[in-house]
Amino acid sequence: MNRASIAPCCCLLALVSANALAQTSPASGPLAAPVAPTANDGIALADYLALLKQIAPAAEAGARDWLAAMQLRCGRTPPADALRRAISRDGGDPVLMDFIRAAAQQDTAARKALVARIDCGAPQ
Description:
- The protein has 124 residues and is mainly alpha-helical.
- The protein has a domain at 58-117.
- The protein is 61% helix and 0% strand.
- The protein has 6 helices and no strands.
- It has helices at 3-22, 45-55, 57-74, 80-88, 94-104, 108-114.
């Protein structure tokens, strides 16, 4: 074994032994059955928007504009889980991302134009 292969082996050994020492749980017995998620496990819309505001104020403002446009055009406001999916799935819903971009740039004209691009489709 040469010096070049000893260093990675030492690092691996250190990581393995550190994990073994860190796993000191007093729990014993059988594991509890996993709990299936329910529809009530989601976060409230106001709470989700408050978290968005803490992370990125423009994201919160754009999300609020998107929600208002959905209410205006479709007659319904999507729940928080639909907003979360619209933000996170496949790079985000393009119209929602444009609302966020327009909010960041404080582009009122773009925000108004985006309302027409809302797709009511199937309820979220």
